[in-house]
Write a structure and sequence with these properties.
By secondary structure, the chain is an alpha/beta fold. Strand 3, helix 3 and strand 4 form a beta-alpha-beta unit. Helix 1 crosses helix 6 and helix 3 packs parallel to helix 4. It starts with a strand and ends with a helix. Bound molecules: NADP nicotinamide-adenine-dinucleotide phosphate (NAP). The site of NADP nicotinamide-adenine-dinucleotide phosphate has 27 residues, from helix 1, helix 3 and strand 4.
C-alpha cells in the first residue's frame, strides 16, 4: 500500500492523478487526517497502515513567511514533521520519498551546475528547514529517495505562472527579476519521476529533478506571457527585495536521474503542456 502526505497540495494532487491513471491504489492524507507534527498520531497511523511506500509531499512552503511569523511552524512541519514521518517509516519498513529543494544551496557556485553531493548552505529559513528534513531522513533511514526540485508549477496550486497570469490581467507592464537562474519544474514531470524510481527500483539516495534547460524568472515570465500584450521588463533582485534570500544560481545537474533512463522534457515543453491543459 502507498501513503501520500500532503495529498491535497500542488504536488500531492498531481501525484494522486498520476496514480489514478496508473490504477495504483493509495491512501492520501492531509493535515486533517494525518498531522505530521503530531508524533504519536503519525506513528500510530503509519504503524497501523504499514505502507510499503510513503510519498512525503507535506511541507511548509511559505518561503517568505518562514523568515518571521511562520518561522516556528516552518521548523515544526519541515523538521519535526519529517522526522516523525521518517521514524514511523523506519519502524514500519516503508520506503520514503522526501521532496526537497534547490534552496538548500546558496547559489554561489562558480564552476557549473549543482551536483547531488555538493556542499549545501541554505540562505533562507525554508531552505534551512528543508535541509534539516533531508538530514533527518538520512540519519534515520536507509531506504529513502530524497528528490530535490525547484521552481515548481502545477495546475493544482499557487505558483509563479498563476501569479504572472493574474497580474497580466490588471497591468500593461510587469517587472521580473533577471538575475536569479534556475530550472522550472512541472509537477507532472516530478510526479512521474517519483513513481519511476519506485517502479525501476532505482538505487536509494539523493536525486535532482527539474525540467531540462534553465532560465531567469524574467525569461520564464516572458515565455508564460508570450501570447499577451503585456510588456515584461527585467529588474535586479535589489530592485525587488523579498524577505527570504533566494539563491542566485541554483541550476541542479540532472544526470543522475537521466542515467536511470528517465526522460526529462524541457521547461518550455512542460510549460506548453501546462498551458494547453489550463486552457481546457
Ligand atoms: N513549490 C515549489 O516551488 C517547491 C520548490 C522546491 C521544492 N518544493 C517541495 O515540494 C513539495 C511539495 O510542494 P507543493 O508545492 O505541493 O506544496 P503545497 O502546495 O504547499 O502543499 C503542501 C501540503 O502539505 C500539507 N501540510 C502542511 N502542514 C501539514 C501538516 N502539519 N501535516 C500534514 N500535511 C501538512 C498542506 O496542507 P494544507 O494546505 O492543509 O496546509 C499541503 O497539502 C514540498 O516538500 C516542497 O518543500 C516545492
Amino acid at each position: 500500500m502507498i501513503l501520500i502526505t500532503g495529498g491535497h497540495g500542488q504536488l500531492g494532487t498531481e501525484l494522486r492523478n498520476l496514480l489514478d491513471e496508473k490504477k495504483i491504489e493509495y491512501v492520501s492524507t492531509d493535515a486533517d487526517q494525518l498531522d505530521i507534527t503530531d508524533k504519536e498520531a503519525t506513528n500510530k497511523f503509519i504503524a497501523d497502515m504499514k505502507p510499503e511506500i510513503i510519498y512525503h509531499c507535506a511541507a511548509y512552503t511559505a518561503v517568505d513567511k518562514a523568515e518571521d511569523e511562520g518561522k516556528e511552524l516552518d521548523e515544526k512541519i519541515n523538521v519535526e514533521g519529517t522526522r516523525n514521518v521518517a521514524e514511523a517509516a523506519k519502524a514500519a519498513g516503508s520506503t520514503l520519498i522526501y521532496i526537497s529543494t534547490d534552496y538548500v544551496f546558496d547559489g554561489k557556485k562558480k564552476d557549473g551546475m549543482y551536483q547531488v553531493d555538493d556542499a549545501t548552505n541554505p540562505l533562507s529559513e525554508y531552505g534551512r528547514t528543508k535541509l534539516l528534513g533531508e538530514k533527518a531522513v538520512q540519519e534515520i533511514m536507509d531506504n529513502y529517495y530524497i528528490i530535490r526540485t525547484s521552481w515548481v508549477f502545477g495546475i493544482y496550486g499557487h505558483n509563479f505562472i498563476y501569479t504572472m497570469q493574474k497580474l497580466a490581467k490588471t497591468h500593461d507592464r510587469l517587472t521580473v527579476v533577471n538575475d536569479q537562474f534556475g530550472r522550472p519544474t512541472w509537477t507532472r514531470t516530478l510526479a512521474e519521476f517519483m513513481t519511476f524510481v519506485i517502479e525501476e527500483k532505482a538505487p536509494f539516495g539523493v536525486y535532482h529533478l527539474s525540467n531540462e534547460n534553465s532560465c531567469s524568472w524574467y525569461e520564464f515570465a516572458k515565455e508564460i506571457l508570450k501570447d499577451t500584450d503585456v510588456e515584461v521588463a527585467p529588474v535586479t533582485s535589489e530592485e525587488y527585495p523579498q524577505k527570504a534570500t533566494r539563491p542566485q544560481y541554483s541550476i541542479m545537474d540532472l544526470s543522475k536521474a537521466k542515467e536511470l533512463g528517465f526522460e526529462i522534457p524541457t521547461w518550455q515543453e512542460a510549460l506548453a503542456s501546462f498551458l494547453e491543459l489550463e486552457a481546457k
